Amino acid sequence: MNTRLIRVGNSQGIVLPKKLLQQYHLAGEVDLQPTPEGLLIKPVSKTRRQGWDEQFQRALAQGQAPEGELLEGFSDEAFEETEWQW
């Protein structure tokens, strides 16, 4: 399949047909990898909450206690006394 380079601001780009985007699950962010044969375009597969465990471990190493800070100042007593109905 041939296509043309088009001007996009100070850069250049290509228009990919919708059918190819769907076939290869390309949307939003893509990964570009130069190869000896040309340019490989791959979908970016990010897992949900990727990197959260490392960030949590760094916070703990720095002496932070997220559990305590998370609920600090939170109280549901007023809700239970005024709004909750059995």
TrEMBL record:
InterPro entries in the cross-refs: SpoVT-AbrB_dom, SpoVT-AbrB_sf
Gene3D superfamilies in alphabetical order: 2.10.260.10
Keyword entries, A-Z: DNA-binding
Keyword DNA-binding: yes
Domain of life: Bacteria
SMART domains found in the cross-reference section: SpoVT_AbrB
Protein's recorded name: AbrB/MazE/SpoVT family DNA-binding domain-containing protein
Lineage, broadest ranks: Bacteria, Pseudomonadati, Bacteroidota, Cytophagia, Cytophagales
